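Query structure, 373 tokens:
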């Protein structure tokens, strides 16, 4: 009898605990604990709303003369092979700004600087800060030159590359660093540039092709230096050591570039070679070709570079190298390659619309590694 009563007592305790668990440990709280430390935003599929135009957004589509009156002449003007000129502002990294100019009008502004012109956004803010100011939307349906387009953002996009619409019919992409979760830069752009770069899934409509102009097939040192500065700027924002630039790393990057373009069959399968060729012919964001990690490791081996002490990326076609770098740092797959705490050298080979980045351990790091082994 005593055993039976004891059994009933235990049974009722378990039963009551099961019923009371949702009260003391609600599902919402458990989910919050699971999400702690992870950048999460609710998925909103409602029709998007436009926010009031302010700051740099007001200059998109305007004549460059208006911008110059307010911010002065750029430090540098570069021609690109994609039909736009690149204006660079800011001697200091903290003032860095890029402007894409087409037909004497501003097509895009890439703001790395923490300026009042980026309000309501500020460099270094978190996605949760943005979510308190406005809703993050997943779908954007609009027209451009009487054609309908429907852009859809995946969860990764919404968390690290959300799209914001302004009431002057322009847009901004907020690039959050995948390592820190902090806002690294804001890219303001018109519809044409958005549809050309198109980092999201296009449900309706087609991406606009790159308008490529003729350019020498030799390596572009100016563009390479531009890429290195952008990468190092983002490394600084993350509190990581910047890459060192030396002649050997640059030569190695160019060597790998030449090997790939002259002996692609040694690196790529037949299927991948065909995909690469299609990318060259298509020349649009819908056909971006990027080496897989295994393919890049094979390229390093053919180039007789130590695979354990080097990594990197190869991609084409590149419409805007800064936009590509920002995308890398907001992507979990590529960000990890830049997140090393050790000192490393960098080499960048840029030719036409193709870019190869090589990251190598410095001689000091290599010798220390060999001694530890």
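Result returned for the query:
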């Amino acid at each position: 009898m005593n055993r039976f009563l004891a059994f009933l007592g235990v049974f009722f305790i378990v039963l009551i605990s099961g019923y009371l668990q949702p009260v003391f440990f609600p599902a919402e709280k458990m989910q919050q604990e699971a999400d702690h430390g992870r950048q999460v935003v609710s998925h909103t599929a409602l029709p998007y709303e436009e926010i009031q135009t302010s700051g740099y957004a007001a200059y998109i589509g305007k004549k460059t003369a208006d911008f110059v009156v307010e911010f002065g002449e750029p430090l540098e003007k570069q021609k690109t092979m994609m039909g736009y000129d690149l204006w660079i502002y800011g001697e200091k990294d903290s003032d860095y700004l890029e402007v894409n100019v087409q037909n004497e009008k501003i097509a895009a502004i890439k703001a790395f600087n923490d300026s009042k012109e980026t309000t309501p956004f500020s460099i270094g803010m978190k996605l949760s800060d943005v979510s308190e100011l406005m809703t993050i939307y997943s779908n954007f349906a609009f027209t451009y030159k009487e054609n309908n387009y429907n852009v859809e953002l995946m969860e990764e996009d919404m968390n690290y590359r959300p799209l914001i619409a302004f009431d002057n019919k322009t847009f901004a992409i907020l690039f959050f660093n995948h390592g820190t979760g902090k806002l690294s830069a804001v890219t303001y752009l018109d519809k044409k540039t958005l549809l050309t770069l198109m980092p999201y899934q296009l449900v309706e409509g087609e991406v606009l092709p790159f308008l490529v102009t003729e350019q020498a097939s030799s390596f572009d040192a100016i563009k390479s230096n531009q890429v290195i500065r952008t990468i190092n700027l983002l490394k600084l924002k993350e509190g990581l050591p910047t890459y060192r630039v030396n002649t050997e790393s640059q030569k190695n990057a160019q060597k790998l570039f030449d090997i790939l373009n002259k002996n692609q069959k040694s690196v790529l399968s037949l299927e991948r070679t065909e995909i690469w060729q299609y990318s060259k012919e298509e020349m649009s964001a819908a056909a971006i070709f990027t080496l897989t990690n295994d393919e890049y490791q094979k390229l390093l081996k053919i180039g007789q570079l130590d695979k354990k002490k080097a990594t990197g990326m190869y991609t084409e076609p590149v419409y805007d190298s800064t936009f590509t770098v920002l995308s890398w740092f907001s992507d979990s797959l590529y960000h990890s390659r830049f997140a090393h705490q050790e000192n490393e050298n960098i080499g960048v080979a840029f030719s036409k619309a193709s870019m190869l980045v090589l990251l190598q351990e410095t001689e000091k790091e290599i010798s220390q590694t060999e001694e530890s082994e």
